[in-house]
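Run log // design_07
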């Protein structure tokens, strides 16, 4: 079996095995595609790239495996508007955590990761408060900001 392109995705093996999932060829191809890009890809884009790695892979297989990978926390899924869903590889290190700025007109996505200490403290306090208030163990969060990018505002 191929090595994943980036050592940052090595943790995928352990996470899959903890969830009693095998690293099948389709899953490996999906993880390879997502680990090789900084972009946020939709299922069709992942399919196009993954089919170069595994020619017999089908689009339905991509969708099924993406849902599994999302459910076990290896891949993040989010809506960009206009019924568009995109995926990105979840990161294993907390310092790689980021939020998104999503343009409602062109659907471009900007990753925002330049958190200040007061922003980190605010989010941490909110997570603690929500966990206590609702007796809920928060494992992760996703914050997306929607608006217009500079290009679309100036058009």
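design_07 sequence
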């Amino acid at each position: 079996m191929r090595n994943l392109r980036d050592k940052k995705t090595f943790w995928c093996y352990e996470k899959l095995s903890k969830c009693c999932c095998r690293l099948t060829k389709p899953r490996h191809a999906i993880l390879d595609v997502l680990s090789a890009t900084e972009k946020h890809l939709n299922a069709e884009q992942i399919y196009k790239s993954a089919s170069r790695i595994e020619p017999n892979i089908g689009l339905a297989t991509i969708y099924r495996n993406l849902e599994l990978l999302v459910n076990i926390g290896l891949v993040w899924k989010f809506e960009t508007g206009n019924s568009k869903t995109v995926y990105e590889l979840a990161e294993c290190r907390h310092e790689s955590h980021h939020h998104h700025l999503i343009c409602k007109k062109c659907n471009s996505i900007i990753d925002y990761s330049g958190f200040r200490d007061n922003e980190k403290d605010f989010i941490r306090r909110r997570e603690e408060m929500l966990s206590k208030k609702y007796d809920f163990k928060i494992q992760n969060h996703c914050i997306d900001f929607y608006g217009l990018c500079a290009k679309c505002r100036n058009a």
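Strands lie at 75-81, 84-89, 99-103, 109-112, 144-147.
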